[in-house]
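Subject: complex prediction, re-run

Hi both,

The earlier run crashed halfway through, so I resubmitted it with identical inputs.
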Amino acid sequence: MKDWNSKSALPRSKSMKKNLQAYSFMLPNLILFTVCSLYPVMWTLKYVFFQYGGYGTGVPRFVGLANFARVFRDKVYWESVIHTFTYGFGKVIFIIPLAFFLAFLLNQQKRGNGAAQSIVFLPTIMSSAVMGLVFYLLFNAYNGEVNQYLMAAGLIQRPINWLGKEHAMKTLILTAVWGGVGNYMVYFIAGIQQVSGEAIESARIDGAGRLQTIWYIIIPMLGPILKIILMLAITSAFNDITNVMVLTEGGPTNATMVMSLYGYRYFFPISAAEATVPQYGYGAAVSVISAAIAGLVTVGYLRISKKLDEIY
Amino acid sequence: MKLRRLSSILMAGLMAAGTLAGCSGAKTDATTAAAGGQTAAQTEAEKAQSTGGEKTVIKVWSKDRHDATYVQNKVDEYNASNTDNIQVDYQLYTDNYAQAIDMALQSGELPDILVQQEQMFDKYVNEGQWADFYDYMDSDMKEYFKSVVYPGYNELDGKLYFIPTTGTTCRLFYNKEIFDRVGIAEPPKTLEEVVEYAKKINTELSKEGIYGFAENMKSASSGLQRSMCIGLERETGLVRGYDFVKGEYDFSQWGDTLKLWKELLSDECAFPGCESLDIDPLRTQFAAGKIGMYMSYSHAEPGVYQNQFPMDSSKWDCVPIPTVGGKTAGKQYFTGTGGYVINAKSTNVEKAFKVYKDIFANEDYLIGYYEGGFGVSILPSVIAKAKPAQDFQDKKWLLINDIDALLPKPPHTAFASGMVVEGEDMYKTCESIYYGNADIDSTLKDLTDRYNKAYQEAVKNGSGHEVKIENYDPMNPTLQ
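This time it finished cleanly. Structure:
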């Protein structure tokens, strides 16, 4: 008997029309992807084998695998990899629990919770560069508001150098957490709202307390959404560049230099004050290896996180 | 329900407006021009053309914010009064100047006249991008500007590419009031004295939030190029570590200076947070009387403390950047500024030169520029006729002096893209010493080896050439 749902069951003209509609909807996205993602990647991959200083500096010179060999010798680059992991770990370890806590708190039907959700979400739509500048003003050692309040409250006797070698990474993580918590809160709210009310009710009837309900019922049932949230948090931490560029420029003494910024500076000056001689080939090699590292981390995470798919 | 819907719509609208405002911002002419759009001046010029005026539009690009108002006024005056049917379109690019030029060249949209800047000049001069002024200058003009023609700098192979009319160099700026308070009678003459005075100020006045020394170390290259590197040129006779006599790099001579700088940037001497300090925040703190000494460019500071961050002129002064033991083995670099290049491939080269001559090379313009405090003139005729701002009359070291000279370009500047230095550049390497734990001697030896290796590699593969000047005398430097 004919399966009226299969494509072959449709008249040829209708099938073509259906496909055409689908492709035409996909076309804008395909064009954007090709122009803005695929072409730049191909362009980058081409220059990894060349020494090239950019437009007006002559013909690119073929150097084979020399750029990759240089990356493996580059101590500063590998330190930036460690800093990226530190930054990513620090960001995720604070942002996920905080976002969950805020989602749980603000999901309840209480007056003002809607407005509170909007306020917490606001930093997400704020420009990262503007955020970096504001935090620079707040945290600078000589007249930043943070030091002034802490000294007025008697908590410190002399200003803390928040953007110095010792504390710059912590300040960066704080900026990132503040900027991103609203985004993940929204995801958690969506997840919490999908948790079965009957399961929670049953737990309550069985005598489970609030914390037990959260730990044994809600969190496990958030498994699939938590997996996606963690993946987004990890990948965004690997790609964060604007905050670092504006707040510390990767300094001082490369204490906050991250992979993405390290590669970036071989294409563009970090700031107007920076003396940069473009090295497109080396920058491309750095970018390729950084992408490979980020890819490995993502694949490793996806394998480990399969357990989060299991719902009790 | 209705209230909730209304507030949701309002909130969404506010967020959208905020996002759109953030995206577009208030478009300046420069932003519009860079985006390939049309500036107000372009629109006006096109209107003039369409009404049958047939005006030739000459585009001028600048990177300088500090004189933008003055230049725009002069351009407006010219547009209103010239009888050559020329409309000048003046556009400002500031931070992304070099990138804007690269993009404009690739798209064939380079303007007719551009403010000269070392990086863009060096990059395109060998491609015949810049016009030879000698093709257009008459004998009077050649005579007037002959004192600022420097073979090897703005005159190459018998061609004149730009005319610097002002100059800038670097000095140590100090607060006289703070010095008086701690009993320092004279400004420092040696780097050791800078450290000593900074310590004294910190010890006695830090409780009031006043510190001895500061520098804009957020960017090592920006901070060091206006301070330590300049002092080292005078102290060692080398230019950014390059020995033009031997034809090689030698950073080992930087050791003594770096030891003192490590002390100078420590908590005992320095303003808190120097490692994340930008130049403008530094200037605000200096104007507020919180910093005893810092180093920076001579052309900008008078204007800054007159207009941007007002400070009583009697409270500050400047002196040459001190060296270790006051040693002098060479001259320090001064940069010629106020120069413009003309696009040789423009369809209006002759008219562009006419605009340049009538506005930017006009003596009244140059006198007004100097008197307005936008730059220190290096033209004898202008200096003789102008009545500069009081700062330039009272503070002799703001002017270009005997200790300043144009210096030849070391390899990493002469063929920057051809010389690929592995690892950190000289500025970041110095940062690892004064802010890190790097051993000075071994780090400087490694820096020397890396730069020499990159230089030799560039010569070997043809992307660079040997740089050596026969009988080079650092006290009387020649450019070639």
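The radius of gyration of chain A is 25 Å.

- K.
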